[in-house]
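Hi C.,

You asked whether I'd gotten around to modeling the 231-residue construct. I have! Everything is below, sequence then structure, no commentary in between.
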Amino acid sequence: MGIDMPRSPAVHRGARILDAISSGVATTPAALSGTLGMPKSSIADLLGALEDVGFVARGGDGSLHTGPRWSELSDPHALAHRIFRACAAPDLDGHTISLVQLFGNQVIFVDVRPGRHPLPLTPRPGQRSPAASCAGAAAILSSMPVADAADSVRAAAAHLGLSGEEVHGTLALRHPRPRRVYESHSARLGRQLAWPVSGTRFALVLHVPDRWPEPMTRKAARALNAAAADY
């Protein structure tokens, strides 16, 4: 999972569990036990501790996801709160919006404002996805000079165990010239439109429902573009 063996086994096992849950590799205790090769009793004990401190939470269907404490630690200056406050526009009502940052060849959903419209997948705070599957990665990389973008990806390469090819593939998502909007479509996350957040290394992502009317999508896109620039 990209984490070396530590001196503190319990902390290491907890980190492996968080890594599996946030990346979507395993979202049930049984899946965690099978994926990580840990006894179910150990999984239950560690999950209980992680839930107690707010690092892990359970959905209505019992599935595991990262908890509210995760967002507090990843956004100590309440940047997400200010950005989402700027997203309070009528044309964005009902839409799912996420704030993402890049970590190596992955994007991390720092925070998510869930909407009412159905999506292939509604991301959760702390969840990870491959950079190539999220429009936010291209938006972030394209907002930085070439050298800064390369440094940003390579800074996490050793931790994640990335090969040179994987680093190069991630950097290939960067567009030589900034765009008005960055768009992608993946089976995992569906259609997304993204913009870099001015003055940060974050991106706002609009998650577009399937078969959504294009005029309504354009209105929402303009509203989110304004929020990314003026928060």
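If it helps when you're writing up: Residues 9-66 form a domain with the Arc Repressor Mutant, subunit A fold (CATH 1.10.10.10).

Thanks,
B.
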